[in-house]
Amino acid sequence: MSMDSVNKTMYIPLYAKAFVSKKGLFLEDKKAEEIWQREGFDVGRKSRSKWLAYYLGMRSAVFDEWLRLQMRSYPDAVVIHVGCGLDSRICRVGEQGHLWYDVDFDEVISERKKYYSETDLYHMIVGDARDSIWLETIPSSSHVIVVMEGVSMYVPTLDMRALIERISKRFDSMSMLVDVYTTLGAKMSKIKNPIKEVGVQTVYGVDSPSEYITGEVECVCVHSITPTKYVDMLRGMEKFVFKTLYAGNLSKKLYQLYEYKKV
Fold first, then answer.
1. How many CB atoms lie within 10 A of CB 171?
2. In Å, what is the CA distance from 155 to each residue of 131, 148, 150, 192?
3. Is residue 103 within 8 Å of 83, Cβ to Cβ?
4. What is the distance between the terminal CA atoms of the chain, rounded to a whole angstrom?
5. pTM of this prediction?
6. What is the CATH number of the domain that holds 175?
7. Residue at 12 is within a domain
8. Do residues 146 and 167 make contact, with C-beta atoms less than 8 angstroms apart?
9. Residue 242 lies in a domain
10. Rounded Cα distance, 253 and 234, in Å
């Protein structure tokens, strides 16, 4: 059975990370380069946009930086990467002694296992953000670190809220980073977005971090997806165009990055 449209979106950030890594920008991702060179998955013209690649590369670098900090702060935490796709975050950031779970749909995990191997600390499990069955396979701990990159826009708001609540109830404390479309961003995606090239028709957006909050969870920070230090790695006209179109006020009206905690 072929992958559905949402699963196919995993090739878009894979291309982006291979592209920026090869150019020596934002992050080093030799695994993405290796997989892309080996497979050369068929993605559309919009998905190969250098501007999108820069944006997604910066986004992943921000997630990596945040995760490293959390792992240093919580040496005994469990790490859960929901909607991992073919992302090589486990290689870029490393286990550092943490128990780490990459979670995604059955078809995605089957594809992923062609390129990654499990260890005593690293595991790949089948799971859907809209249910909690897979959470039962993860041992509880005093703290959990959750990353959801490029996932929330495919999950209805009520399901996202329920997922955060289920995770927070299972662990004593939680740190979570999730990128989101705003409602305007979700509407705009119907006009011009590379995910349409793989058949995605429905996406979701929220206009406040409080729409995901439940119980003891609170939003503690709204992060920049395009920090100045990464934008400054670009040069000349590329820097000007990116700063104007992808890192300006319009971008912030379409896309946000929220950090949640349960303490």
1. 21
2. 11, 11, 10, 20
3. yes
4. 43
5. 0.92
6. 3.40.50.150
7. no
8. yes
9. yes
10. 23
